[in-house]
Design brief:
The protein is of the alpha/beta class and 285 residues long. It is 46% helix and 12% strand. It contains 12 helices and 5 strands. A 5-stranded mixed sheet has the order 3-2-1-4-5, sandwiched between helices. Strand 1 and strand 2 form a beta hairpin. The longest helix is centred in the first third of the chain and has 21 residues. The N and C termini lie far apart (56 Å).
């Protein structure tokens, strides 16, 4: 505005125009020029695009948190506007394949974590199974999360949805974390978790068994949320040629992206590995 008036009336000095418009001269001379602002806008768009390319499922809130970690101070409305203009908002349709087989003759267990909050690592583990699409069939993914940090402590991919699948994920989790006796293992009431072999392994590890009510996914919401993230940000974006490619890509996503890099709103926009490290420092101080 000041430049436009000055061009139309070159006889009026910039200093005088600042006085007439009630702005300080320091503000005028220190403010970014149109060229600088344009360059900053391009840098911001590039930064947002780079983040979304690495984390395709990020919405504007997580993008804002990621930008903040890089030193940016940007209003969320501006980020949302850029993402809309550049078509960077995630819009992916989901399919559904049932994975829970609850009608079985094995013993069921009560929900031990309902209306409770976890405040320690390896206090509660949440286990679940989902499907992964292949060109002509499905394979199945079993995972176990630490309910406090959301860290995926164990996983297994298999062509069959059976107890061997869930046991493989459990063995990885026990090897990785070596939890003390009293850990609560929470799952649905599927036969893969209620089977004698799986229950015996949990009892041998000193775990307490907890199960959600039949047909109530909200009682295992953290596991459901994890699967939504994995599918939106990995599986639905890939056309796996075969089982081996699916296993390699999913393993890389879980171990290198989800656990190490992905920001979680429930963790104060930290990745699980950083959240656990900060928690360890607090406990040790």
């Amino acid at each position: 505005m000041i430049e436009q008036v000055h061009q139309e009336h070159p006889g009026i000095s910039i200093e005088r125009l600042c006085e007439l418009m009630d702005v300080s001269r320091s503000w005028y001379y220190e403010r970014p020029s149109a060229t600088e602002k344009s360059c900053k806008d391009v840098e911001l768009r590039d930064a947002i695009e780079r983040i979304v390319l690495e984390f395709p499922g990020y919405g504007y809130r997580r993008v804002k948190a990621a930008l903040k970690r890089e030193g940016w101070s940007v209003n969320h409305k501006r980020i949302l506007r850029v993402m809309r203009e550049e078509s960077l908002l995630c819009r992916i349709r989901r399919r559904f394949v049932p994975t829970t087989d609850s009608p079985h003759s094995f013993k069921g267990y009560p929900n031990l974590i309902k209306d409770t909050e976890t405040d320690e690592l390896d206090q509660v583990w949440t286990a679940d199974i989902t499907y992964i699409g292949l060109p002509t069939t499905f394979c199945y993914l079993a995972t176990i999360l630490d309910a406090f940090s959301r860290y995926c402590v164990g996983w297994s991919l298999s062509r069959s949805i059976d107890t061997r699948l869930t046991l493989s994920a459990l063995e990885m989790s026990l090897t990785t974390r070596q939890p003390s006796s009293g850990l609560v293992h929470h799952s649905d009431q599927g036969v893969q978790y209620a089977s004698s072999e799986y229950v015996l392994r949990l009892e041998k590890a000193g775990a307490r068994i907890s199960m959600a009510s039949v047909g109530n996914p909200y009682e295992n919401a953290k596991a459901e949320s994890f699967f939504r993230t994995l599918k939106m940000e990995e599986a639905y974006l890939k056309d796996y040629r075969d089982f081996e490619e699916a296993e390699d890509n999913i393993g890389q996503f879980i171990e290198e992206v989800y656990n190490q890099k992905r920001l979680h709103s429930s963790l104060g926009y930290l990745p699980p590995v950083e959240f656990e490290a900060l928690h360890a420092l607090k406990v040790g101080s």
